[in-house]
Amino acid sequence: MSDERVTFGSKLGVIFASVGSAVGLGNIWRFPYETGQNGGAAFLLLYVLCVVLVGLPVMMSEFFIGRHSRKNAAGAFDVLAPKTKWNFIGYNGVAAAFLILGFYSVVAGWTLEYFFQALTGSLTGKTAADYAADFSSFNSGIFWPIFWTTTFIALTHIIISVGVQKGIERSSKIMMPMLFLFMIILCVRSVTLPDAEIGLSFLFKPDFSKINSSTVLSAMGQAFFSLSVGMGCLITYSSYFGKDTNLQKTAITVTVLDTLVAVLAGVIIFPAVFSFGIAPTAGPELVFITLPNVFQNLPMSALWSSIFYLLLAIAALTSTISLHEVATAYVHEEHGFTRKRAAFIVSFGVLVLGVISSLSFGLLKEYTVFGLNFFDLLDYATAKIMLPFGGLLVSVFVGWRIDRKILKAELTNQGTASFYFFTIYAFLLKYIAPIAIGLIFINELGLFKLLK
Ligand code: TRP
To answer: To test ligand 1's pocket by mutation, which of 99, 322, 389 has the most ligand atoms within 8 angstroms of CB?
Structure first.
């Protein structure tokens, strides 16, 4: 049975699909705004620590779970630990997929709006204040936010329905390197702006007085979000990997590229933020109100900016595909719906959430829970609670429950591939990851204060 499952076509396909999942709005939209709100360089440092010490080991473990079981995020645990409650990790992940798509599609919709604005030339010739005002008037509207969110969900739906191999592989192979190239160009433009060094020192010169418990939780949440770990996304993808895929190399490649793109985004955004007098704490709109100013200072700005927003939309698409796939594979394999029907069910659920959250900045602005609107609530619940919690469970499951020999055999392709640092990996997984995640949770929830 399991051999009938589709697999990714080539080695490069595996890497591009995983990088495609990891690199997206998390790097270019979420990372700069979280960094801006959390004080800059100190946040970046914590973020990198979380990526290396927690994110990477959890990613390798998700690869192990997926390829060893060759099942979807929930079904995998019924194979590896039958008749236990470990499949909760999968259910948590499937729920997270819906919730993340519910706000991610909204931001992906913003990139489409900006693509069209760039095409029609209405994204040039304005002041920094105009760009900020334009964004909020677009974003507080009703029709266009709903329209673009819906369009983006429809695009994701179509690719998912076409199938794993063709849809995902083809779209990631050409576009990711192009996006990278464009970012390098933007980077050069940004660091040569007047006062660029203020932005660079904000990003690279840590001020540790800015760290508190919520900064640490934000850094951890960002690490999970950006790497696509903690919700079975990479379990699902690695279930399509071939037997000769080098899991360790793939994980390291994905992690390095993902982090590189995030840092590059920071190097583009912060010099511009300070150069144009934008507040680094502007929040979710930061990238959208900053970049038009940078483009405006390039020759042929309409051309550059329209291609850039298109590439960004495609980077977002390769991420939404991976999120959608988690839920679709689950509904299809565990509940006996055809793949097409499963995809429909998922898209419909996401559409409902997406439409509501697209109105969070206008019509539904007043409806808040713990001071968060619907959009922010989805973001907080997933990135800062569900993903780290999923990651905690994965590290305990693979670190403590899985036989070390089985783990090593899978990660080394039955001894044919080398796995450097296996002992370090196992140590991080067994002790560091669960303890770090646990402490950060406890710290943020204020339990320490309670105990005192
Ligand atoms: N990592 C993607 C980004 O940075 C978003 C994403 C895709 C994701 N799949 C995920 C986040 C799974 C968390 C879990 O844009």
So the answer is: 322
